[in-house]
Amino acid sequence: MQSKYISISSPSPHVLLLELNRKPVNAFNTEFWKEYGRTFDTLSTHHDDIRAVILSSAFPKIFSAGLDFQGLNQLGGKDLLIDPARRALLTRALILDVQHAITAPERCPFPVIAAVHGGVVGLGIDIISACDVRYAASDAKFSIKALDMGLAADAGTLAHLLKITGNHSLARELAYTSRMFSSDDALTLGLVSRVVEGGREAVVGVALQLAREIALKSPIAVSGTKHLLLHARDHSVAENLEYTATWNSAAVQSKDLHEAVNAGMTKSKEAIKFLPLKPKL
């Protein structure tokens, strides 16, 4: 599963660590964002028993500098021989492709935990906004940078931000100004749920603890919880309750439920060895 710009390792059973690894600052060109989306989509259907993924950077001082200038120029549609309407169609298709790639973690049946440190700029915020859990090192600095590039952020930040946070005033302030903000500001905003004192190693270590805890749970239950949380985000309470009833009418027949109930009744302290989400046939 190794790829050109993403390093993949398994620091714990059922847990993968994905590290962005495009020198010098993880700036995303076309090849990089395509590889990013393809990697997560491949993991979603992979035969290995993957139960949690940590997303971080291979570089100690930065998570991502965002989209590189080549990418910005491509979005501009510079071929003047094509009329504006047709340029708009081509540009729209390109933006949709970027959005599809950057939101790939949402399509995964397992949780994706972003462990960020250093600079998290522009597309870096789009990326972590599509992750399930976001932890930041105390040295992390963030910026919704698109406005300074003469553009509204279009790969996920604006779509996710007001659903992630209850502090709409701060979210809008940061989006309108592109100013750099700290990990503590990100915690106040609700962009991250935890600030870990230190840098890359510290935040990845804490994220690994969370991933290990998730990996002990029923993968059927974890996958269903993620699916229903995403459904709840995009639907009314009544719609989600009805959908959940249909979903769980199948899920309650899982062997995992009976094993978990029996373990609870017998007060067993041994972790249940749940079957993979997608057992090999």
TrEMBL record:
Keywords: Fatty acid metabolism, Isomerase, Lipid metabolism. It holds the Pfam family ECH_1. One of its GO terms (biological process) is fatty acid beta-oxidation. One of its GO terms (cellular component) is mitochondrion. GO terms for molecular function: delta(3,5)-delta(2,4)-dienoyl-CoA isomerase activity. Pathway: Lipid metabolism; fatty acid beta-oxidation. Signal peptide: none annotated. It comes from the Eukaryota. Belongs to the enoyl-CoA hydratase/isomerase family. This is ClpP/crotonase.
